[in-house]
Prior knowledge:
The structure is a single chain. The chain has 3 helices and 3 strands, in the order βββααα. The protein has 101 residues and is α+β, with helices and mostly antiparallel strands. The protein has one domain. It has a 3-stranded antiparallel beta sheet with strand order 2-1-3, with helices on one face. A hairpin with a 5-residue loop joins strand 1 and strand 2. The radius of gyration is 16 Å and the shape is globular. Keywords: DNA-binding, Restriction system. It comes from Onion yellows phytoplasma (strain OY-M). This is Type I restriction modification DNA specificity domain-containing protein. Belongs to the type-I restriction system S methylase family. Pfam families: Methylase_S (PF01420).
Amino acid sequence: MGGNKKTYSKGKSERANQNAGTITIGRDSGYVHYHEKPFWALSNCFIINTKNIKDLEYQTLYKLLQKNQKGIKNLKNLNKKGKNIKTKDLEFFLNSILNFF
Length: 101
């Protein structure tokens, strides 16, 4: 490889495929994270699409997800193989907590 291209360890890139201000939830860990800078997301996380949410509501959503992080992490136990959180389980969980929002 020549030129000025930077090399990074696995999962890092000098380019981004997600914008700053994005919430992700780890598929394996259930960890809720708010990204303040553009980043490269891999397939090991759920991306919360919030294009139609106002900034204040978005911060409230992030805090709500953080508050329920333990419940999100426990979704891993619903998967018989126990390796990661299934999309349908996360969707059901999110819909149930957002009904109170």
